[in-house]
Amino acid sequence: MGIRAIVFDAYGTLYDVQSVRLLADELCGAQGALVTQLWRLKQLEYTWLRTLMDRYEDFWQVTHAALLFALAAARIEATPARIDRLMEGYLSLAPYPETAAALEALRQHKLAILSNGSATMLEKLVLNSGLAPLFTEVISVDRARHYKPHPACYALAEAALGVTKSELLFVSSNGFDVAGARNYGFTVAWIERGAPQPDIPTLRDTYRLLRGREEQLGLAPEYRLQRLTDLVPLLRQL
Amino acid sequence: MGIRAIVFDAYGTLYDVQSVRLLADELCGAQGALVTQLWRLKQLEYTWLRTLMDRYEDFWQVTHAALLFALAAARIEATPARIDRLMEGYLSLAPYPETAAALEALRQHKLAILSNGSATMLEKLVLNSGLAPLFTEVISVDRARHYKPHPACYALAEAALGVTKSELLFVSSNGFDVAGARNYGFTVAWIERGAPQPDIPTLRDTYRLLRGREEQLGLAPEYRLQRLTDLVPLLRQL
Fold first, then answer.
1. What distances in angstroms separate CA B87 from CA A90, B43, B60, B116, B206, one per listed residue?
2. pLDDT tens for residues B84-122?
3. A108: exposed, middle or buried (C-beta count within 10 Å: 0-12, 13-18, 19+)?
4. Average model confidence (pLDDT) across chain A
5. Intervals of CATH 1.10.150.240 along chain B
6. In CATH, what number does B5-16+93-237 get?
7. Most buried residue, A146, A202, A238, B25, by CB count within 10 Å?
8. Per residue in A48-69, pLDDT tens?
């Protein structure tokens, strides 16, 4: 097939959005888990709802609005200090343990990010994690003023990287993003990070219960991997 | 202002989507609550994601796909009997306790439903609940092949009812629907059914924690009511 470029989703795929949890625990006490879950769920909802209503705002604004909702729902006062620190936390999310090793091992390909994040958010994220030098391009959907899974977002990648659809492998662990990339026509590898056991369901599990499983949208990924480093043997075959 | 028509959302506003919970408990045991919550959350997600990807399927198909996801996430076997009975349950959801009284008291206005439900689902729902004679029109977004909050859905109401935007009051308890109707230009009354206490958050609360609160989308409703019968004094003023 001749893959020349590997395009990664950022939040949830390369970077762990749940890594703000420690900060949320510090700032919101026992409600830290709840705030973390609601924040991420609402953040995604707002990207979808704003795209549907054609009322685009950038991901920093969406993330801020989602945080306000999450704090109100958890009955935590939305003080400027709390908001500022949590928002800043989004600029230094932890990469998953295998992220750096996987990217290093794939360097003979063009590596890129295609993310909902604003250009500024993504720039800080890759700088703070020390991964910036590994990427040929860091593409924000802000250029299209739509959010994933709208096709206009995925359409940004080929032009930015100078490759054709068939030369590009798209990598995401978000089910809606897998579906969106497949819908657009990309070949997709799904990083299946696994859902929690539903035996004692608490809100702490909500995000993974809702997202850590293949979506029923009729757009299955071509490849299913457990972690980013599994891309290395896959790319040898493609 | 001269309101001539009152247009209601169906699921969550006139009819309690949580009323399938008893059936889910019977069919899914201790996972009934989890299945009920995930089912509704995924059902809405899939309406948004399909609209964003321009891959419309009707609400019966979307509801079925969401149920498959929910059962898989809860590790409940998706037997035909279980699926059939839960799907049938969606055709006889219980109206909220005040629904019939509120509609009766508002009969001097044209009353209508504008819902994501397919035409067949809505027809059975209003028949099974005995409320069919109260509605001038039961409008399915299926005519627009988009889901709320896409503007094409709301645009169906004026033509179907022969009224102008300013003669129409839109009523919903779903925050995304309030935002969508306001975005389209309708006057909106939000039935604020209230969110649960977040002190002991379990998945049982997820739906209400995520939906039972005003959205942070910059599209606040003009009126906030506690229950449908509060529309009666409001309409006297309008």
1. 40, 12, 8, 16, 21
2. 999 999 999 999 999 999 999 999 999 999 999 999 999
3. exposed
4. 91
5. 17-89
6. 3.40.50.1000
7. A146
8. 999 999 999 999 999 999 999 9
How far is A87 from A82, CA to CA, in rounded Å? 9
Whether A216 sits inside 8 A of B46 (CB atoms) is yes
> Is a pLDDT exceeding 80 seen at residue A207?
no
Distance CA A87, CA A99 (A): 23
Task: Determine which of A47-56, A133-142, A222-231, B56-65 has the lowest per-residue pLDDT on average.
Answer: A222-231
The three-state secondary structure class of B136 is: coil
- Cβ pair A121, A90 in contact under 8 A: yes
pLDDT value of position B226: 86
Q: What homologous superfamily does CATH list for B17-89?
A: Putative phosphatase; domain 2 (1.10.150.240)
Q: Report the 10 Å Cβ neighbour count for B48.
A: 23
Interface of A with B in 72-101 (CB under 8 A): 72-75
Amino acid A114 reads L
| Position A34 confidence tier, pLDDT thresholds 50, 70, 90 | confident
Residues of A in contact with B87 (CB under 8 A): none
A151 contact B CB<8A: yes
Taking CB atoms and an 8 Å cutoff, what residues of chain B touch A38? 209-210
Element (H, E) at A18: none
**Please, where in chain B does CATH 3.40.50.1000 lie?**
5-16+93-237
Q: Is the CB of B215 inside 8 Å of chain A's CB atoms?
A: yes
DSSP SS3 for B2: coil
Alpha-helical (H) ranges within B29-174 are: 32-52, 59-73, 80-89, 99-105, 119-128, 151-161
Question: What pLDDT, on a 0 to 100 scale, did the predictor assign at position A67?
Answer: 96
Name the residue of chain B whose CA is nearest to A50's CA: B217
Predicted model pTM:
0.94
Judge whether B230 counts as a catalytic residue. no
Nearest-angstrom CA–CA distance, A176 and A174 = 6
The answer to whether B55 faces chain A, any CB pair under 8 Å, is: yes
Give me the residue label for tokens 């600029």. Answer: A91
* Structure confidence at residue A206 (pLDDT): 67
Question: So what's the pLDDT on residue B200?
Answer: 47
Cβ–Cβ of B49/A213 closer than 8 Å?
A: no
Q: Count interface pairs A-B at CB distance under 8 A.
A: 127
- Residue B199, number of CB atoms within 10 A of its CB: 11
Window 22-51 of B, Cβ < 8 Å to A: 31, 34, 38, 41-42, 45-46, 48-51
A209 token code pair: 């219960």
